[in-house]
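From the thread on structure requests for the teaching lab: each student submitted one protein with a one-line request. Submission from student K.M.:

"Model DNA-binding transcriptional regulator from Planotetraspora silvatica, tokens only."
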Amino acid sequence: MLETSARLLRLLSLLQSRRDWPGAELAERLGVTTRTVRRDVDRLRDLGYPVESATGTTGGYRLGVGAALPPLLLDDDEAVAVAIGLRAAATGTVTGIEETSLRALAKLEQVLPSRLRHRVGAMQSAILPLTGPGPTVDPDLLTALAAACRAHEGIRFGYQQRPRRAEPYRLIHTGRRWYLLAFDLDRDDWRTFRLDRMDLAPQPGPRFTPRPEPAEGVHTYVSNALTASPYRYRATILFHAPLDIVSEHTSPTAGRLEHRDAGSCLFHAGGESLDKIALYVALKGIDFEVLDPPELKHHIRALAHRLTHASRDD
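Reply posted by the TA:
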């Protein structure tokens, strides 16, 4: 009985991790026969999980939209509370768990019956979060994109008044903005899209086979893409400290660090204001030199003068 229960939980986890599963692949993952998979699927259905099946030689399974909430997970009130909490966390009210909240929210909303979805929507519309200035993103858009990433489903959407087609891979949250890492089918290359600049809601496209990730790795690619945006000013700073020390004080979305030698590193950054760049660099508490642009040196001298003047004893 314990072995069967553990296998059912493993099967449920697999069904939630991807949209479609061939029966033979599920059997291989679970180490059982396809006949056992069929029996386990029937057990999940008896427990209230809406598992759909496809016939044919390559017949498979998917977790469908539930007519009733599965009884072994949450009751109605608990499900609504969790959905509201996950939506709040997904919009950045709890730092560090935004992406995890989205994955959990996508799984939960997939099986929520319509009556509970209406309750969640009603409560969400009545809540007024007091957040700081900056672009906002609809949680429904985040949920839809997270589901498309998980299902490997292409999307069509409007971006700055232009139609785009893409294969979505990852959602990125920088603390201020949300981005989508996707393969742009029109430009045949990887791109990052700001979600607050999407003009039209994404429409589902054809399923796709995941491509190899960017050669430099997702983390490095996204960091370089975000910091190489067409800012008004570009700066190169020489820090007199090892790269691993400077990286502890540097957000990967603030700029790109480059190893120079054992005791120093370069910092490449951009911004709309030289004062902001000067403050960001100075507040690290690490000795540095401005290599470029020359006008940043003048801004730092002016900032130092203002700070010195403010600290004088009258």
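TA comment: The chain has a mean pLDDT of 82. The longest strand covers residues 162-173.
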